[in-house]
Each structure stands twice: as structure tokens, then as C-alpha cells.
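Re: the multi-chain job from yesterday

Posting the exact lines I submitted so nobody has to dig through the queue logs.
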Amino acid sequence: MTAVSEARSTGRLLLIAGVIKDMASRPSGLIGMSLVAFHVLIAILSPWIVPYDYKAVSVELMFNPPSGNHIFGTDHLGRDVFTRTLMGGREALVVTGFATPLAVIWGGFIGILLGLVGGRIDEVLMRIVDAFLSLPWILKMLVLIVTFGTGLEVLIPTLAFFYGIPVIRIARAATLDVVARDFISSARARGHSRLAIVRRELLPNVLDVMLVEGAMRWSWMLLAFSSLSFLGFGVSPPTPDWGLMIADARGYMAFAPWFVLAPIIALSSLIIGINLAADALAKALGIDRSQKAPQ
Amino acid sequence: MIKMILRRLALGAITVCIVSGIIFAGVEILPGDACTAFLERNAQGVALANCRSELGLDRSATERYLEWAGNALVGDLGISAGSSRSIAEMVGDRLNNSLLLALGALILGVPTAIFLGCLTGLRRDRPIDLVFSTSAIFAMTIPEFVSATIMILIFSIWLGWVPGIVLTPAQAPSIEFFPEVILPMVVLALVMTAHILRLVRSSVIEVMAGDYVQMATLKGVPYWQIVFRHALPNALLPAINVVALTIAWLLGGVVVIEVVFNYPGLGRMMIDAISDRDLPIVQAIALIVATVYVGVNLFADVLSLILNPRLRTMYARKS
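And the result, C-alpha cells for all chains:
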């Protein structure tokens, strides 16, 4: 038993290593993965490597252009923009890092179940999913956030809940697609039990789709999170956050462009990195997402 | 065929009904109501009870839902809790402004997207394809508020070509929003173009690799005739649905852009209403946006059914 499970887990590790190698073999995949790894590393290490205190306010240092001491200049309160840019992704990565897997797991679970069960329940629940999708995301989220506050304990479940709903659709479609294939009917003909078919034939195939979906969800969630921060419904000051920094800096763009450009470059490079990595992951797993419209 | 269209219509109507239920229930579940928001700290005892009976909030939820949904059906969206004005009237101006913005973005974006999508699809992996496809990835992945901020920085602050902020009041006639509305239109068109371009491109590539295109080539049909007579009509069909999604997005989801440019559209009204806890307005806007979403998608579905003979027969056989 242990030997078998060990062999299976080393097999799985080899598989993961193979996928990562495939992703890295494409230039866009390599760039994407490096950008994501870079940002995650910075987010973890930034409290120890930043040169200044992120909330140290100073009147003399207001709107200093980039210089040797402050390489990205200073902001409207005299805080070091470089420090705040390095730390500005932490909150976003923590929230989306928890909310993305949660969304994919709950949406995927319900979707696979609906795909397998079908019938009346499926019909009714899919109508409800459609109904939820027809409401703008920002409205659904803002109503909850305005009511319950903007802490992590609100943002994570809110994002996970609403971003899991479209996952239901994808997981259901993937399940229906796999169930109709030949290897499922041949497993059935071999006399395997339902559970065994689901576990060994269905899940591995649907899981690939879910992984790619999760990667895409991550970038959309990051987008949603920073948009919320930008609108003033996300991270509360003085915690550094890119969306919030861009919102603050917009008013001073005309004479302090460094203040707005630093968080813009940081946020954009992370989102583009995730997208490139997700694209490479889809190609490495042999899933074509080019036809799907965003949701 | 007609049966199928009717079926779609029925499904759409059911979805709108469910949405109205979700909107109503969602607002109902939230702690507090229009009266506690309006009275704030004075919300207790007689004042609260009076306010509630005045607004009819003391009746059962089902009763209020039926009244609300029934009134909405005939165009009466209720009264704003904050300003005691008719919501239909307040929403009217904003909807007009949102339509202006959406229309401008569509006129700019859709033809550009289809043209560039075909061009990049037909010239796959050539320099022109790489340039436009890569720019499209950038345009669709970067958050809207970031691209909007960059555009304001370049075109309105550095170059000074167009104003970067809208100062015209919400009730002004559409023509007065020029030239302020140009930059938001361009930003929306840019994001939209990127999405449609990518889809048209992959669709063109797929169609051009099809058997019938190869057949036509072997028969000696001139290249441009193949492209215009055989490939493009098929390749552009999937674009209908994406354009529909885009229209729905333009009319409901451009909150961030409206805030960035201070544009008085539906999106900003929604944000303000949520911040002020003016729930009747939130409900009304949610219902309008959801209905537009369902309606536009329905229209696109029916249109592609009519235009695509294969889809038509496939569904006919199924049902």
C-alpha cells in the first residue's frame, strides 16, 4: 500500500515537474512565471528589505523627485514610494492567494456534482448561476463590503464566493465534456464502480481545466481587488496597496508622475505575469482557452 | 425555429425573474433598511416605526416584493430613500449618459476590432500579428483604472489634447459632453477592442484551416474571394456573442472608468447609492443592468441562430 501510494506521489511529482518544464520552455511562460515568482518573493521579504518605514510621514520630504536616497521619489505625505511599492502587493496577494483556491474548490465541487447529477436540480441551479452572472460584479461585492466592512475576513469570503460562481459553469461543462468520452464508457464496461470512475477517470481530466481556470481567476480577482482598493473599498490607509496608491497619486500626476507610475508598473507587471503563466499552463496541459470570453 | 426562439425568450424571462428575487432577497438579508439608513442615530422607537409605516416597510417581504416587481414591470422604480425623488427620473439621465459612452465606444471599437482581428488572423505569426496580439494582451490584462490613468497622463496632462475629467452636469444634453467624453470612450474602446480582436483572430485562424477553405484553394478560387465569401462570414459568427457581452458590460460594469473620469453615468450613480445606503436605487439599477444583460445576450443568441444554418439544424434535431 505505502509503496503504491509512494510510487503514485512520485509519479505525480514528475508530472508536475514536466508541466513546469513545458511552461518554462515557452518564452512567454518563462517571463510570466519569473514575474509571478519575483512578486511573491518581494511580498514575503519586503518587510525586511525595504529602506524606510512605510508609514513614516515627513513634511520636508513631500513630492521629492526620484533621487539617490529615494529612488522612486516620495509621495504627498513625504513617504518613500519605493518602500510602499515593494510592500503594496502584500495585501492583494494574501487576499487573492486564499480566495482563488477557495473559489475554484467550491465552484468546481458544485459544478462537477451538477454535471454528474443533471436533471431538475441542475436545470434550476444553472438558472440561479445565470441570474448571478447577469449582475455586475462590483455591485454584488460592494453591497457586502459596505455592510460588513473591508477587513480580510470579509474580502476573502466575498471574493471567493462570487468568483466561484462562474467556476461552477466551467466545471460543469468540463464534466459533461469528459463524461461523453470513450474512456468513461469503456471504464463502465470494465465494471468499475461509479466512485472509481469519478476518482480515476473523471477528476484528473477535469482537474486540468480547473487549474487553468484557477490561474485565470487569480488574475481577475487581483484586478477586482485592486479596483476595489482604487475606489476606496479595499485596503484601508496607511497600509500600502497599489490600487490605493494609484488613487492617491492621480491628483498629483501633473507634477509628480513618479508617484503614480511606480505602483502602475508593479501592478501591471504582476497581472501580465499571471496571464502569461496561465496561458503557458493552458498550452502545457493541452487546453484551448482562446475561444472563451471572459466573465 | 420559432419554437427555439420562444424557448430562449422564456429562459431569459425566468432568469430576469430569478435576478429580481436575488436582488430583493439580497437587500432584505442585509442588516438595516432604508429607514435606519435615513434616520441614522435617531433610528429608534416612534420615529423608526413612523418612517417604516410611511414607506410601507412594516408589511411582509413577499407583499413588498410583489409590489416592487409589479411596479418595476410598468416602469415605476419607486422613490429614492435619500432625496425622495422618483428613481425612474433620476436613472433616466444617467442611463442616457451611459448610452452615449457605450455607443461611442462601440462605434470606435467594434469595426477596429473586427478589422484588426481579421488582419492578424490572416497574417498569423507575422510581425503585424505579433505587434497587435501582444498589445491586445496588454490592453485586456491591465486594470481599466490603470490604462485610464496612463491615458490621462499622456493625452491630457503631457500632450494637452483632450480634457481628462468630465465636469458637465448629469442633466446636460449629450452634445455638451464633448470633448470631455472622448477620452473615456477611447479607453473603453481600447479594452473592448482587445477582447474582440483576440476572439476574431482565433476564429479566423480556425476557419482558414478548415476543409472547405482548402477545397476552395485547390479548386483555384482566388485568395480574396475565399476570405470574403467563405471564411469571414463563418469566422465572424462567434463575434456576435462577444459583442453582446461587451455591450452588457458597457452598460453596467464601467463603474471604475466612470469614477476615474468623474463621468455621471449609471455606474457612478450605483457607487454613490451603495455608499449612501440608498437601497431602492441600488435595487433599481441592479434590475436594469441585469435585464439589459439578459436581453442583449438573448438577442445575440437568436441572431446567431438565424445567421448560422448549422446551429439551427443542430438544435432542431435536439429538441
